[in-house]
Design goal:
Helix content is 32%, strand content 18%. With 532 residues, the chain is of the alpha/beta class. The structure holds ligand BES, manganese (II) ion (MN) and zinc ion. Ligand BES is lined by residues 301, 319, 376, 378-381, 405-409, 411, 466, 473, 496.
């Protein structure tokens, strides 16, 4: 269990002391977030759920009330009144529609929540994940001991379907109310999944833990979450796994000539960090070259001198979501025990303003040697990634995948719920899309035609850090990154849309979503010890 208290070691930050004038870090305990490790116990039961003591039983139903023996059995127990309510439209089986009823007669669970799955021909892992999460979120307005999940059309032939329900169930109540005295969501003590199949919970627990970790890192605001605290919390949480860590501080970053990353972080009181995590792989895959996961970890993006308006700045604690996704994925794969070695690199900085801020027109020398003319200090993510990608290339990975809340333009192109996929390797993109389809997360390619290349050329330096104007901004950002990966097969995932939700969804509280942890953990698992 990890405490997110603001530890004494950060007391030297003036911002922290000034914020709480009569306290020191050592004695101040107000407003600290609750520990947010996933501590719901997941159990599998082949008992009859209607004869099981539960606070809440979730029962999945479809619109025509077909396909589920369990719903039919419940209907019979209730003298046909359930199907009557469904056919009269009072209870809906449409996607993510739920209804709650208390003290249903003749069954042991005190409350039943029905959850609609929508049309059977549209069912996939994403639908199941969201349905389970919706029902759990619906049921978790108070602390419960035991919630059951039953009637989900999962089959042994499709292990993804079972895991989707289990993961949705486990993370459905992981929300953003970290600092509220009165919580709004309470993860249940125990989640019971009813099935007659033999089911292992290990993979689902691993991925759910990763998603919860990602959400929890992203949901902490910038007065709590900055490069050092990101590192500390990560190291505390991975203790006990076989992940190895290495942390580069300012001195090391200077020695390594990470000038573009340092320039972005220079105006902040919070020093930058590069966090490196290594997962060694298992015997079958150990000797393969690693896959590198690179994350943008801008713990707050004010825009710098090209300052953001308040509206746009409000949610910029989310700008380390790429880094948090990478860390959550590492946690997941370490717990899953996948075959392949994986290295994560997260570039952590805060993009602020002060007398030492980097300026428009500045020319920076990246670690790779390419010079960059600064046209906009709010295009900072690509500068951080330029240096981190160069470090990654040096480790000779077989592939690099980077994750970044990189551009508003990607959200304009694809909306809030779809990640942008770019890169230099069609086969790698196919593998990523396949994994995303398998788990039901949304990702879509944007074209990397060479006509975009000239847009990142500068008249003064080798490159400039924005394209010509804002059109195609997600692509020109990726084109900039491409300059730093050499020949390594590389994919770039822009998750500015799906990483963070301004409004709650039926299946997820507002705030961090943990999007793509499931996809990438699945991708790395799929690759196994294959030569690709
Ligand atoms: N962190 C932002 C991108 C972002 C926008 C993330 C919305 C999440 C939600 C990024 O650093 C940024 O400011 N990008 C600029 C680039 C521009 C100056 C070329 C943008 O998208 O406007
Ligand atoms: Mn920015
Ligand atoms: Zn940013």
């Amino acid at each position: 269990m990890v405490s997110l208290a603001f530890p004494q070691r950060y007391a030297h930050y003036a911002t922290y002391r000034f914020a709480r004038p009569n306290t020191t870090a050592a004695n101040w305990h107000g407003g600290e977030p609750e520990p947010m490790t996933l501590d719901t116990q997941l159990t599998i039961s082949s008992q009859n759920p209607f004869q099981t003591e539960l606070d809440v039983l979730v029962v999945a139903i479809s619109p025509e009330f077909t396909g589920s023996e369990l719903a039919t059995e419940l209907d019979a127990l209730l003298d046909g009144r359930l199907s009557k309510l469904v056919s009269s439209g009072v209870i809906s089986g449409e996607t993510n529609k739920s209804s709650t009823w208390h003290l249903p007669a003749k069954i042991k669970p005190l409350t039943v929540v029905t959850i609609g799955l929508g049309k059977p021909d549209r069912l996939n892992a994403g639908v199941l994940f969201r349905a389970a999460a919706t029902a759990i979120k619906q049921a978790s307005g108070r602390q419960l001991a035991r919630i059951g999940l039953a009637g989900f059309p999962c089959s042994r032939d499709e292990p993804n379907s079972t895991d989707a329900v289990l993961i949705g169930g486990l993370v459905g109540a992981i929300g953003q109310d970290l600092y509220r005295e009165k919580k709004s969501l309470f993860p249940a003590k125990e989640l019971v999944f009813f099935t007659s199949d033999e089911v292992s919970t290990k993979r689902a627990e691993a991925i759910a833990t990763g998603i919860a970790m990602t959400r929890n890192l992203v949901n902490q605001p910038a007065n709590h979450m900055f490069p050092e605290s990101f590192v500390d919390q990560t190291l505390e949480q991975i203790a006990g796994t076989n992940l190895q860590s290495e942390v580069w501080d300012t001195d090391r970053l200077v020695a390594e000539r990470c000038e573009t990353m340092l320039a972005v972080g220079r105006a902040s009181d919070k020093p930058p960090r590069l966090l490196i995590l290594r997962y060694p792989g298992t015997a079958a895959g150990k000797s393969l070259p690693p896959i590198a996961l690179v994350g943008k970890g801008v713990t707050f993006d004010s825009g710098g001198l090209s300052i953001k308006p308040s509206d746009g700045m409000m949610t910029m604690k989310c700008d380390m979501a790429g880094g948090a996704t990478v860390v959550g994925t590492m946690m997941a794969i370490a717990k899953m025990g996948i075959d392949r070695p994986v290295i994560a690199l997260v570039g952590l900085v805060e993009n602020m303003i002060s007398g030492s801020a980097y300026k428009l027109g500045d020319v920076l020398r990246s670690r790779a040697g390419k010079t960059i003319e600064i046209h906009n200090t709010d295009a900072e993510g690509r500068l951080v990634l330029a240096d981190v990608l160069d470090v990654a290339v040096e480790l000779s990975p077989s592939h690099i995948i980077d994750f970044a809340t990189l551009t508003g333009a990607c959200v304009v192109a694809l909306g809030n719920d779809v990640g942008g996929l770019m890169g230099n390797s069609e086969p790698l993109q196919q593998l990523i899309r396949q994994a995303a389809d398998q788990v039901g997360e949304y990702i879509w390619p944007l074209p990397m035609y060479s006509i975009f290349d000239e847009q990142v050329q500068s008249k003064v330096a080798d490159l400039k850090n924005v394209g010509d104007g804002r059109w195609g901004g997600a692509i020109t950002a990726a084109k900039f990154l491409e300059q730093f990966v050499g020949d390594t097969p590389w994919a770039h995932i822009d998750l500015a849309g799906p990483a963070f939700a301004d409004k709650p969804k039926s299946w997820c509280d507002a705030g961090a979503t943990g999007y793509f942890v499931h996809t990438i953990a699945t991708l790395l698992e799929n690759l196994g010890s294959k030569q690709v």
